[in-house]
Amino acid sequence: MPARPLVRPIAWIDPEALFLAGPAIEAHAFWLDGGPHAESGWSWLGTGEPAPGLPDDVPLAVSHGASPPEGDIEVPGGFAGGWVGWSGYDAGARRAGAPARRDTDAPEDAAIRVTHLVAFDHAARRAWILAPDGDERVVAEVEAWCRRARENAPPSGERLPEPTPSRTAKARHTPEDYGVLISRCRDAIRAGDAYQLCLTTRFEVDAADGPIDAVATYLRLRRAQPAHHGGMLRCGPSALLSASPEQFLHVRDGIVRTRPIKGTRPRGADPDSDAEHAADLLASPKERAENVMIVDLMRNDLHRVCVPGTVAAERLLEVESYPAVHQLVSTVAGRLLPGTTTGDLMAAAFPAGSMTGAPKLSAMTVLHTLEAAPRGVYAGCFGWVGTDGAADLAMTIRSVVVHSGGAYVGAGGGITWLSETDAELAEVAVKARGPLAALGAELPPAWAALDGPDGPAEAGRAVPPVR
What we know:
Layout: E1 6-10, H1 15-21, E2 28-33, E3 42-51, E4 82-87, H2 89-95, E5 109-121, E6 126-131, H3 136-152, E7 167-168, E8 170-171, H4 175-190, E9 196-206, H5 214-224, E10 229-235, E11 238-244, E12 247-252, E13 255-258, E14 261-266, H6 271-283, H7 285-303, E15 312-321, E16 325-335, H8 342-349, E17 357-358, H9 360-371, E18 381-386, E19 391-395, E20 399-403, E21 406-415, H10 421-438, E22 441-442, H11 445-448
Parallel strand pairs: 7-22
Antiparallel strand pairs: 1-6, 2-3, 2-10, 3-5, 4-5, 4-18, 5-6, 8-9, 9-17, 9-21, 10-11, 11-20, 12-13, 12-19, 13-16, 14-16, 15-16, 18-19, 20-21
Helix pairs in contact: 1-3, 4-9, 4-10, 5-10
């Protein structure tokens, strides 16, 4: 039986300051980030020991109850310790039986077995140190981080100047090439091989063009594109820096939820145009059809591991707004069958339908041929799995993957029969621009020309939903 965790409350402290004072300098560290100005939700940060990947044998169909049993410790935020890590798209496609390539830039699967953990409740402005293994020395070490943070942290927002773009990313596909692939997706749809395909590409930055500071890059990314499921995970020489707005799987008390995003519009340059873009997204037959297709796919996936009759769409076709884009989001939930493990759930639902298309196996097979290159960590998932059967995983989108040879940013969009090539190309450009800017990189000129004036605007920025 695992040791009871130690839980110690501490005075509120800026998560960014605490991360910089401790985990930021460690080889295996994480920060699951609710956002720089979060007023609700949770953040977690800490360090741990390297692990080969997220575990597949943790029982998930567990009821935690409304309050802890007498003598037990109530764990802030539901994460008492366990694993933080990522699983890449190609590894998931391979496990699902689809053809897949191997990406050698960063590990397909990587994780940290948590030893030092700090939880932040943004709504209550409260924080706690957790020592998952019950080790008092861990509490003392984290308290030392806190002292350093309080002594050295400048006011929030003054830590990092914005970079001047000094390099241009290299594109895996030109816009012309990507446009041809869109046409081939429509051919596959016409032939009946799929009815929706999530086509992606990659933009790369070479380390030879200058060193890449993963921590500084993440700080810039989170300020430019705050998101409720942002995060930085460093696993040895590789790091994932994400401003993900999409929750893939959340498990608590035996209930699993997924929140697929399908449908995108850029933010407007002023409040009026911003509202027009959001209204256009909600009214679009193509975007609504794309979203509903993935909702049906996710309902089918969850039925494989949920009690019959419990899987349902709790919310359908809601617009959520972020600094760069408006998104169309739905929520599907179900009650897990007794005995369901992390491996069972991942086998049923991963890779996520929002990053494959539908039908899933056929879509992945078509995309393997069209993309003709690995996706790597991009289009996979990341987050935490608790030893107690709770979990929270996000989609690896709006992200930078840093590795020994440089860094890459993946971007793409869902293609249906109603897709318009110019709109799909512009969507890729607007999605890639923010993560590349955090790297101090610009889109290649041909892609930058597609990223029009109605990009992200401060005017009308909405607060994203909580983690």
